[in-house]
Write a structure and sequence with these properties.
heterodimer, A: eight-stranded mixed β-sheet, 9 helices, B: about 325 residues, alpha/beta, eight-stranded mixed β-sheet
């Protein structure tokens, strides 16, 4: 199946003073209709920047993003081509992403209204969408402060759904929610992807939820994708030491009093990325050449792609131990 | 030896619609060198419990019952009395180390301030102690760190500095409110390891407050689960997590993404936690509980003691089977 979003060699730069910081440095990524892609990495690795560049909130410095056959351009002051309305984003903080002074119904109706739907029809649509995300229809008349965090995130999802998008980018959509709301909102997203055959890019630092709902995973470190592949394959045999380190750091509520492995050091400043493999200063398996030559992104025999000299193109993933 | 003994603690807060109990009849103990975990969703009263021990309840907030800390009764303490204890015998760290550290002051100023206040030591002595503390929490190059400001450190390093501050006067009790929630998993593991080492090396008692059952599993000896301001279940951590007896505890564990269930769907608890001032009557969880019966709607839920080390507050006690939970 042809992917609906294709990211090719995308780089995004910020200017900090007179310095250029490359937050995303040459990323390739694909999502197909009906697929959930989990994008994971530590804070500061550029995963939110990548999400924003895919919808066009940020402009790429290099490379391109294709959505449903057309290249995505930056969102400007003018109205965008209607085509791109099918590409929607949901943010982490539902307190910040809804307008506190406008009624829920009006905020959800904005999308259809811009597409030329009458006000009455748009409000009717808003009501049915609220019902679909598990809220009462009369919520259209209420304001964001009258809802809890989990409910607000449902409202934000209803708003993104209002113009029947083909792809949703969800940036940490459940991180700010309580345990029981997390499960419910994650289930809602999974149901919607199946029902509407949307593509979903689920950005999260929580590997256990990504493992559960994603079909494929992309692991990002300091602006680069270090490993992508099917979720279960990556989970069963991580091929990049960073993937393994991230997985080893997860705590489990199994009552075994096990303190997980920590990864020494922090994500380096993207303004001064380490030479060679960007992960080598923190990598427990680093070798001498990791500091000088950048690893090639190779495809393994099971179809996943990884950037690490320990793995050989065309072979099965080599087991990592540390 | 028991360090902290809380009995029938009720915390009443002033809300827009009058006074409301945020914590209801809570009783628990902490031994020296023990780590107690308090789990619950937002609004369950876990932070208010901590703040009542610190004497930091919000304006017009009032604690009643008894908080016996190392022989002293803290309920009824005046602000002046709390100033003597707070930071010295009881210290607290918060979720967001960016807001709990002062952005404009150097680490040295912040690390030595309460040492100078509580211990009346000289500037040089305080500085030497600060260097020692930074070394304890594994901040590289403590000399340089003392001159730096919080913004020059990453989130994990800031949390380590906040822990160093809390440890400065060698407190007997450390309260950690969501200490790793704002941190990456890779950094979280390091903080958990540090807290565990401190407990062992300094015989420190710790209360860890979080909704993250994985963190509590890694670190705590005992666990108390709170719902709507009251305890629903408590006991040794491994037993509570592997054989939960209260339906709410079971619900929290089932909702975890790494639970046993297959497929993409998670098992959510229906409904939402109640808001302050709108706690349901009877067992507050009855509105969301699939085992609820008529008698759950009024009165107080039965206290069930299990093996002398555990208890639940549940009139139905649906998982009371020889094999534990059996569904």
């Amino acid at each position: 199946m042809k992917p609906i979003v294709e990211v090719k060699n995308l780089s995004v730069e910020y200017t900090r003073g007179d310095q250029k910081v490359r937050a995303v440095a040459g990323v390739d990524l694909e999502v197909s209709a009906g697929e959930i892609l989990g994008l994971v990495g530590e804070s500061g690795c550029g995963k939110s920047t990548l999400g924003k560049a895919i919808v066009g909130i940020l402009q790429g410095a290099e490379g391109e993003v294709n959505f449903d056959g057309q290249q995505v351009s930056k969102i400007g002051r003018g109205q965008r081509d209607a085509h791109y309305r099918n590409l929607q984003m949901i943010f982490q903080d539902p307190y910040g992403s809804l307008n506190p002074r406008r009624k829920i119904g009006d905020q959800i109706a904005d999308g259809p209204r811009i597409s030329g739907v009458s006000k009455a029809d748009a409000l009717e649509k808003a009501e049915s969408l609220l019902e679909r995300v598990g809220l009462p229809r009369n919520a259209v008349e209420r304001y964001p402060h009258q809802f809890s965090g989990g409910q607000r995130q449902r409202i934000a999802i209803a708003r993104a759904l209002a113009i029947s998008p083909k792809v949703i980018i969800a940036d940490e959509p459940i991180s700010a929610l309580d345990t029981s709301s997390q499960a419910a909102v994650a289930n809602l997203l999974v149901n919607l992807v199946e029902e509407f055959q949307m593509g979903l890019i689920f950005i999260s630092h929580d590997l256990s939820i990504v493992r559960r709902i994603s079909d494929r995973v992309a692991v990002m470190y300091l602006g680069k994708i270090v490993e992508t592949g099917k979720t279960e394959e990556i989970w069963n045999s991580p091929a990049h030491p960073y993937t393994k380190a991230l997985m080893s750091a997860i705590t489990h509520a199994d009552g075994k009093a096990f303190i997980p492995l920590d990864l020494p050091g922090d994500v380096p400043n993207p303004a001064y990325p380490p030479s060679g493999c960007r992960f080598h200063p923190r990598c427990p398996l680093a070798q001498a050449e990791c500091g000088s030559s950048e690893p090639v992104h190779v495809s393994l025999s099971d179809g996943r792609k990884v950037s690490c000299i320990l793995q050989q193109a065309g072979s099965a993933p080599k087991a990592l131990t540390f | 030896m028991t360090l902290l003994s809380v009995r029938d603690l009720t915390v009443t807060l002033m809300t827009g619609s009058g006074p409301a109990d945020a914590v209801r009849n809570l009783s628990f103990d902490i031994e020296r060198g023990q780590i107690l975990g308090i789990a619950g969703e937002s609004g369950s009263g876990k932070t208010m419990t901590a703040l009542s021990i610190m004497g930091l309840l919000p304006y017009k907030g009032k604690a009643s019952g008894s908080i016996n800390f190392d022989g002293e009764e803290l309920v009824g303490f005046k602000p002046k009395d709390f100033r003597r204890v707070r930071g010295k015998d009881v210290a607290m760290i918060f979720q967001d180390p960016m807001t709990s550290l002062h952005p404009m002051l150097t680490i040295e100023t912040q690390l030595t301030e309460h040492l100078r206040h509580h211990r009346k030591v000289s500037r040089a002595e305080a500085r030497a102690r600060a260097l020692e503390l930074l070394d304890t929490v594994k901040i590289p190059d403590p000399e340089t760190a003392l001159k730096a400001h919080p913004s020059q450190f990453s989130g994990g390093m800031r949390q380590r500095i906040a822990i160093a501050m809390a440890l400065a006067c060698q407190p007997k009790l450390l309260i950690a409110d969501e200490p790793t929630t704002a941190l990456d998993v890779t950094v979280q593991a390091g903080i958990l390891k540090l807290l565990d080492e401190l407990r062992k090396s300094q015989n420190l008692s710790v209360i860890v407050i979080t909704h993250d059952l994985g963190v509590l599993s890694a670190l705590t000896d005992r666990l108390m689960i709170m719902y709507a301001g009251a305890e629903v279940e408590s006991g040794p951590t491994s037993q509570v997590l592997t054989r939960p007896r209260h339906p709410y505890t079971q619900g929290l564990i089932d909702a975890l993404p790494d639970s046993e269930a297959h497929g993409k769907r998670l098992i959510a608890i229906e409904g939402m936690p109640p808001e302050l001032g709108k706690f349901p009557s009877g067992c507050a969880f009855h509105t969301r509980c699939s085992f609820a019966r008529n008698e759950c709607k009024s009165g107080t839920p039965n206290k069930v003691d299990i093996d002398g080390t555990r208890r639940i507050f549940c009139t139905v006690d649906p998982f009371d089977t020889p094999a534990g939970v059996n569904r």
